[in-house]
């Protein structure tokens, strides 16, 4: 599985487009970076940028952004509603796919060291990358903001940076770390009383007895009281729950929420969770959501080849051996089709052209079935796991559900073995009558098909061990043994034909 990291740096300028666009261009200058969002707020005088990519690409893009921000932003001249300590105020890495939070912390540490050494910017590591407990929270590092930091750096030991010089500078320090996904979400009230907004923020944030994964503060933005929040775990402190809590708190003052504001990106699942709650669709299945279903189908279609290899290597149970067997069988048919194509295009093979054309068509049909089996095998395994964990079923009903799912999990690799065996027979015939310049490819198809049968056979037998239907288990086990025996003979014959026709 490809490693994908998200980076959401915050820059202390939201009023000068020429500044934050130059920073954005520095990020875009890195190849393979996916630039997702830029959100500039003139009241907070802050810009939040979101981009994703591989760990190395994201680190390079973050470095260039920090460098550009230090060139263009002078904290001595900065003012705004939002707390800040540096030109690049904070630069977090968030794991998205194929990478852990610990690995993101290591990435943050390496970037911090580079920024300190090459740019001479003081760096503090926070959250999961923090080197000491008192630096885990961003708010603790940023206490007193840039003005207090400038007075204390080089004087107080507590201000000693993790990397870079312990001396004041106009760009301030940069805080770099790793954290889970965070939703930056603001609610506006129909009042200009910032004290009320701040009181409501106190009641919903964790440090004052509110939600465990909510940070909040009150601001005055464009003449309205704003409850500014960070939801650091939207699964544990849900967006809709926090929204309703703020609504109730506001009602106590005779106020309402006028509108909400999202800063940066939000996971789709957070919105789905809120939709389920507000619409009371408690049994809504993700497969009922059109986009989710289309994404699932697209993921199956895009498994080959690189994506499939990455998915297989990812450490998850699927795709596994059964899917690999189906892929091996599909590759065997593809090689057979190649040999058939190289034969039917040559006049000197006109005597076998009709037979070879039929083989070409039949191999194409086998390839489609085997390709479908790649995803089908993974789905069958997941169905067994789902039946085993289904708490709504008990006793005989649960046994029957597991039995049915297990039969299907055995039936699919058995079908793969049958189809692959058939592909081997066709490929051996092509090795015998087809273009001799491709005879080794035809032999390779047979050998690949043998691997498919061998692997599929293992998957059949492991599933048969738990079947209650022992008669069926014995029947399918015997069939697999016969397929393995005969395809071994076919592979030996193919190798011999290749040697004879290839002249080696």
How would you describe this structure to a colleague?
The chain has about 500 residues and is α+β, with helices and mostly antiparallel strands. It is about 55% helix and about 15% strand. The strands form two sheets. Strands 1, 2, 3, 4, 5, 6 and 7 form a seven-stranded mixed sheet that branches. Strands 9-10-8-11 form a four-stranded antiparallel sheet. The longest helix has about 40 residues, at about 395-435. The two termini are about 40 Å apart. The mean pLDDT is about 90.
Order of helices and strands: EEHEEHEHEHHEEHEEHEHHHHHHHH
Rg for CA atoms: 31 Å
Low-confidence stretches: none
Helix content: 40-55%
Major pleated sheet: 7 strands, mixed
Can you tell me the overall shape?
Answer: elongated
Please report the number of helical segments: 15
Mean pLDDT: 92
Strand content: 5-15%
Q: Which secondary structure elements does this structure contain, and how are they paired or packed?
A:
Layout: E1 4-7, E2 10-11, H1 17-28, E3 34-41, E4 46-53, H2 55-72, E5 88-97, H3 101-118, E6 123-127, H4 138-141, H5 145-152, E7 174-178, E8 183-189, H6 194-204, E9 214-221, E10 224-231, H7 239-252, E11 257-263, H8 268-279, H9 290-301, H10 306-312, H11 321-344, H12 353-389, H13 395-433, H14 439-464, H15 470-502
Parallel strand pairs: 5-7, 6-7
Antiparallel strand pairs: 1-4, 1-5, 2-4, 2-5, 3-4, 8-10, 8-11, 9-10
Helix pairs in contact: 1-2, 2-3, 6-7, 11-12, 11-13, 11-14, 12-13, 13-14, 13-15, 14-15
């Amino acid at each position: 599985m490809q490693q994908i990291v998200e980076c959401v740096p915050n820059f202390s300028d939201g009023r000068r487009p020429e500044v934050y666009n130059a920073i954005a261009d520095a990020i875009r200058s890195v190849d393979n970076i996916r630039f997702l969002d830029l959100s500039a707020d003139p009241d907070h005088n802050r810009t939040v940028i979101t981009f994703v990519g591989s760990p190395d690409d994201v680190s390079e893009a973050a470095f260039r952004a920090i460098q550009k921000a230090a060139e263009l932003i002078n904290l001595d001249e900065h003012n705004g509603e939002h707390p800040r300590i540096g030109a690049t105020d904070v630069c977090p890495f968030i794991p998205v796919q194929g990478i852990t939070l610990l690995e993101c912390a290591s990435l943050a540490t390496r970037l911090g060291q580079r920024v300190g050494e090459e740019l001479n910017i003081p760096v503090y590591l926070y959250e999961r990358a923090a080197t000491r407990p008192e630096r885990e929270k961003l708010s603790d590092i940023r206490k007193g903001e840039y003005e207090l930091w400038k007075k204390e750096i080089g004087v107080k030991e507590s201000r000693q940076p993790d990397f870079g010089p312990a001396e004041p500078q106009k760009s301030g320090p940069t805080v770099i770390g790793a954290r889970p996904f965070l939703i930056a979400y603001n609610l506006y009230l129909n009042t200009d009383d910032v004290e009320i907004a701040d009181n409501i923020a106190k009641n919903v944030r964790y440090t004052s007895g509110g939600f465990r994964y909510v940070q909040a503060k009150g601001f005055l933005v464009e003449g309205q009281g704003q409850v500014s929040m960070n939801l650091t775990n939207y699964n544990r402190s849900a967006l809709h729950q926090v929204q309703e809590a703020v609504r109730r708190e506001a009602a106590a003052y005779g106020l309402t929420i006028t509108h909400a504001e999202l800063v940066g990106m939000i996971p789709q699942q957070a919105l789905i969770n809120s939709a389920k709650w507000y619409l009371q669709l408690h049994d809504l299945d993700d497969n009922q959501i059109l986009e989710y279903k289309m994404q699932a189908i697209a993921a199956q279609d895009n498994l080959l080849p690189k994506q499939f290899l990455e998915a297989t290597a990812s450490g998850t149970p699927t795709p596994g051996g059964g899917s690999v067997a189906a892929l091996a069988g599909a590759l065997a048919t593809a090689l057979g089709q190649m040999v058939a194509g190289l034969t039917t295009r040559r006049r000197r093979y006109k005597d076998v052209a009709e037979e070879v054309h039929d083989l070409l068509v039949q191999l194409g049909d086998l390839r489609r079935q085997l390709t479908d089996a790649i995803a089908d095998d993974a789905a069958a395994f997941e169905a067994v796991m789902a039946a085993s964990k289904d708490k709504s079923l008990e006793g005989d009903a649960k046994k029957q559900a597991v039995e049915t799912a297990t039969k299907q999990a055995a039936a699919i690799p058995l079908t793969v073995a049958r189809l692959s065996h058939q592909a081997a027979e066709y490929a051996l015939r092509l090795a015998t009558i087809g273009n001799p310049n491709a005879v080794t490819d035809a032999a390779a198809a047979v050998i690949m098909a043998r691997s498919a049968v061998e692997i599929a056979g293992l998957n059949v037998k492991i599933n048969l061990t738990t079947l209650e239907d022992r008669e069926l288990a014995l029947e399918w086990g015997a069939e697999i043994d016969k397929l393995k025996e005969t395809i071994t003979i076919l592979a030996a014959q193919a190798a011999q034909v290749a040697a004879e026709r290839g002249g080696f």
